[in-house]
Amino acid sequence: xxxxxxxxxxxxxxxxxxxxxxxxxxxxxxxxxxxxxxxxxxxxxxxxxxxxxxxxxxxxxxxxxxxxxxxxxxxxxxxxxxxxxxxxxxxxxxxxxxxxxxxxxxxxxxxxxxxxxxxxxxxxxxxxxxxxxxxxxxxxxxxxxxxxxxxxxxxxxxxxxxxxxxxxxxxxxxxxxxxxxxxxxxxxxxxxxxxx
Length: 196
Fold this sequence. Notes:
- Helix content is 62%, strand content 14%.
- The strands form two sheets. It has a three-stranded antiparallel β-sheet with strand order 3-5-4, with helices on one face. A two-stranded antiparallel sheet has the order 1-2.
- The radius of gyration is 23 Å and the shape is elongated.
- Helix 2 runs antiparallel to helix 3.
- By secondary structure, the chain is α+β, with helices and mostly antiparallel strands.
């Protein structure tokens, strides 16, 4: 088990690192080191469960995997933030961290082909998937617009002007980040036959 365990840990480290490199390339908060550590930690969690089971088959090792999965929630929650323009960022990073737990768990229990397949799928989702999203968004009839108005009295004329041009408002969030200013983040439907 010790040689096999070492191989599983190294495989988890390599596969988690590969996933993290994609996030590092995009200068995301959680990248190469985070993903590698999460994957290796998960693999060791499974190995410890196996060792515990070998010493006492009555031990419920599924609880160990469940703890690893719930533990990544703390890291994931920390990487999800709302930016100044009211955009939620960090969701892909958090999801990728969760997937790296699964990679580590799979490598840790010896399901190597599953671990490799999961990394391939995850890197595809993060790279090619981003291009698919960009292409999809280019043809979307919706746009997100963030505007800082230098007074509340300027918001309504802006909305009326946009409606007069054929824009339809889907949602709008407003706040006062600075005294006498209003920050508005709006999602609007483009007029027919308009392009981004």
